[in-house]
Amino acid sequence: MTTDDFRPEKKITTFYPPQRILMGPGPSDTHPRVLAALARPTLGHLDPVFTDMMEELKGLLRYAFQTANLLTFPVSGPGSVGMEMCFVNMIVPGDKVVVCRNGVFGGRMIENVERCGGIPVVVEDKWGEPVDPQKLEDALKSNPDTKIVAFVHAETSTGVQSDAKTLCEIAKKYGCLTIMDTVTSLGGTPIYMDEWGVDAIYSGSQKCLSCPPGLSPVSFSERVANLVKGRTEKVHSWFMDINLLLGYWGSSRTYHHTAPTNSLYGLHESLVMLYEEGLEHSWARHRRNHEALKAGLKTLGIEYVVAEPYRLPQLNSVHVPAGIDEKEVRRRLLADYNLEIGAGLGDFAGKIWRFGLMGNSSKIEKVIFCLDALEHVLADLGMKVERGAAATAAHQYYAANPMPA
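Now predict its structure.
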């Protein structure tokens, strides 16, 4: 036997991905400035120049989350790792945790509670509807020994946004800590971590931050920091133990793991761009593009899943028109236009499309392109449409609603 016996039968050469337009639930299109940052020379993760950049990164994340928390940094891993970090550090076996579920990602929170040995109490709401604050209050009244309340701010599977401020106020009223998922909301819709009183928050790099997947920004309040420091048993994860990570992301720069330096360059650049644009401007841009897309979809008779007051501007979930093969539409958009949109998950599988307008994918030209492509595909599949009406409606909205200075 020789090394050639293990050669792949097919000749493999350098991989060159096609140039897609990503308008699904994530990832979003990576900004060229971020791609350029990723290609810069690799430094050691303890290099003093790199550690200076880490300090800037933490400050930029505090701005994005609107918090003064010292314990704010990016975790090496996708948003799912940030989620697990919150639960594994804050829960000890036997802790009661109220989890609000109104979509796929609330369900993942329940899974985390169970794997940490906690006792989940589930507040259930219909998919496509926000978390009902009264249901949360009722659950806390019935479970006065609850330690933590966990909820998803922006539910990616449905495109609905819940009232985080009110949910946190209720949790605080009953003496509970809070965990909030902001994977889809960070940078695209308002988040005020300190003002709302959120204790633990996590997000992802690949959505409204226009960065590739692989990093999860997190932030923890002083209450969480004290809770973790006071644990009498070790956190049930070595890699995600906040006490150990503080040695690397804190002032001592103690070796913990080999941080993904080039990925962190990219996140740093994306946050610099957010800082330059300004949070309020970014939120307004996402809102404006959402309204233009909505105007175009209306001409096609396409209706939204979520009621107007609770819709996420950056994640537009809509019902598939009657008689249309939703999978075929997505296939044709990808094959003919290099355009990716999202399918439904869980209860919504086969029933909805999800249009992402996140970060670098939230642009006028991409909204118009998406509407044009969708209109052509639907017409080809036999649906009656007025050619050009969708893009015209979007243009009219843009003309009547310029971006504020």
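The chain has two domains: 32-275, 279-400.
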